[in-house]
Specification:
This protein is mainly α. The protein is built from six helices and two strands; from the N terminus they run αβααβααα. The chain has a single domain, classed as Nucleotidyltransferases  domain 2 (Four Helix Bundle (Hemerythrin (Met), subunit A)), CATH 1.20.120.330. α2 packs antiparallel against α3, α2 runs antiparallel to α6 and α3 packs across α4.
Length: about 140
């Protein structure tokens, strides 16, 4: 789905970028990623949710540097649809799987994440976030 279509459908909207938005989103991402690692031993569910939330904030930062934010309902899914234009399919698939599982953990069922699943989530989140940070740095330096 094109960015124009996402905008037309009310999933994203153009913004005048607040100079602090991208840095703030990356700080939120880093904070949640650190929380994921801290909670790994005591609460694998929470570690998983924090890993996903860190990915979401990084995704919002990439949206912001490109002049957009999610809008309307299903904003997490809107971030996913936006990121399809900037990230490899494998990263989008990881984000999508984690988004859906996070929803279950947040609203429906607890105690379903094993320590191994949480470690995997942290590892995937790290790769995802570092990829986005590199894209943002590239964009900020003026490279395409």
């Amino acid at each position: 789905m094109s960015l124009t279509r996402l905008e037309h459908e009310g999933r994203i909207k153009k913004i005048i970028l607040n100079p602090n938005f991208v840095a703030d989103q990356l700080t939120i991402s880093d904070r949640n990623f650190a929380s994921a690692k801290r909670n790994l031993d005591d609460d694998p569910d929470l570690a998983y949710v924090c890993s996903y939330t860190a990915m979401l904030a990084a995704g919002r930062a990439l949206m912001g540097i490109n002049g957009y934010i999610p809008d309307g309902h299903e904003q997490h899914y809107s971030v996913e649809l936006f990121l399809e234009h900037f990230l490899d399919r494998s990263l989008i698939t990881q984000f999508s799987v984690m988004r859906r599982k996070r929803h279950t953990l947040q609203y429906d069922q607890i105690g379903t994440v094993s320590p191994t699943d949480a470690i995997t989530a942290i590892t995937k989140a790290d790769t995802f976030i570092q990829t986005i940070k590199a894209k943002i740095a590239q964009r900020q330096s003026g490279a395409s």
